Write the structure tokens for this entry.
Amino acid sequence: KHHERTIHPTQKPVALISTLVQWISNPGDSILDPFAGSGTTALACKELGRNYICIEKERKYVDIIHQRLNTPITERGLTVEEQVEIEEKVKPSHQQLSLFG
């Protein structure tokens, strides 16, 4: 199993979704994920300086999304190089709207 795996049965690796987000958007753009699951798209967007709108009907997955988004980069099991790369991409000025929490 991949080290990023959560309890969601169809979770994708952040690296995969990050690549897709980079292909289809620019920093500052907004991404809509109508089936947020464990929040991998939101996490990729946050790391790449994109805004995101996530829709998830299952409260247990909304809680997972919040936990993942609030976990510091250094606690995600990434290498130092991966941490530096992510931190350089994050735009500190963007804001996110949350309907829960």
User: Anything to note?
Assistant: Helices lie at 14-24, 40-48, 59-70, 80-89. The mean pLDDT is 79.
